[in-house]
Design goal:
two-stranded antiparallel ribbon, binds zinc ion
Length: 282
């Protein structure tokens, strides 16, 4: 992706090097087990890995200034340009639909972070918290994409950012709130199916972003995003982790579905073709 020297977002909050555990939510998390804390992550997986107890993260040593490597700094700048691009795209798409887009913040963190949705560690991967309307990313995920998921390339990372911003779009449109209300009234399997639809729609929105940004993409860029989407399908991740896949437990969709909806967003670039909730076969 062509990005160097392009506009960066004003909405990046750099919290790298700060320990997340002891901040805003410290000590107040006793009720975490009862309060339903919703976050929207890129990856499925075991939810108990997701939100961490403050007592463990509090032990992390505080350091006041974070020394980023040149590579990390470049990735931080890249993510900031991508965020600025999402702001432009979604402001325009919302306007076309008679709506006003409200830009989310993007928090860069290392290891652990305190959010309005609870404390989280990098293990969960990038995520969005509707409680504070912020996207959270530990930039080490770029390396993970490359090494663990075999999905290298800057546009793979752009897809990750755009997927999380897609959850913010869902929040603004009221979709995620409606879905979480519904989820509390249905069986676990049905709640999971609703989660899949929400996640596939976030992939669709990532495709919409790519479509509107295509003037900055070269021939291989979108392929990088597709490779990432393919690598993080529930079936693929479960087979890698345990040797088999259990469809009722899918929360993000299969690799094929994630690729399909990302492609669809890239094809249409609008809101209306992204209705995963009324799509046949889902
Ligand atoms: Zn997601």
């Amino acid at each position: 992706m062509e990005w160097k020297g392009r506009k960066q977002s004003k909405n990046v909050e750099d919290q790298r090097g700060k320990s997340g555990g002891g901040l805003a939510l410290g000590g107040g998390l006793g009720g975490l087990g009862i309060i339903i804390v919703i976050i929207y992550a890129l990856l499925g997986g075991n939810p108990t890995d997701m939100l961490n107890n403050s007592s463990t993260t509090q032990q992390t040593t505080q350091s006041s200034s974070y020394e980023a490597t040149a590579e990390e700094q470049e990735m931080a700048e890249f993510v900031s340009v991508v965020l600025a691009d999402t702001e432009e795209v979604w402001t325009e798409v919302f306007k076309e639909n008679g709506l006003t887009y409200k830009e989310p913040k993007l928090v860069l963190f290392t290891n652990s972070v305190a959010t309005a949705c609870g404390n989280a560690t990098s293990a969960i991967g990038p995520f969005y918290c509707p409680g504070d309307q912020k996207v959270y990313i530990d930039l080490s995920f770029y390396q993970e994409l490359k090494d663990q998921f075999k999905a290298p390339g800057d546009f793979a990372m752009a897809y990750v950012v755009a997927h999380e911003v897609g959850h913010h779009v869902q929040y603004l449109l009221g979709t995620s709130t409606k879905v979480s209300q519904k989820q509390s009234q249905v069986s676990k399997a049905e709640a999971n199916r609703l989660s899949v639809k929400l996640e596939l729609q976030a992939d669709y929105y990532a495709g919409v972003f790519a479509k509107h940004n295509s003037q900055y993409l070269d021939a291989s860029d979108f392929e990088e995003a597709v490779r990432a989407a393919n690598a993080i399908g529930d079936d693929t991740l479960q087979k890698q982790a345990q040797g088999y896949a259990v469809p009722d437990t899918f929360t993000h969709g299969t690799s094929a579905q994630r690729v399909e909806w990302l492609n669809k967003g890239y094809k249409y670039g609008d809101l209306e073709h992204g209705d995963t909730f009324n799509a046949s076969g889902l």
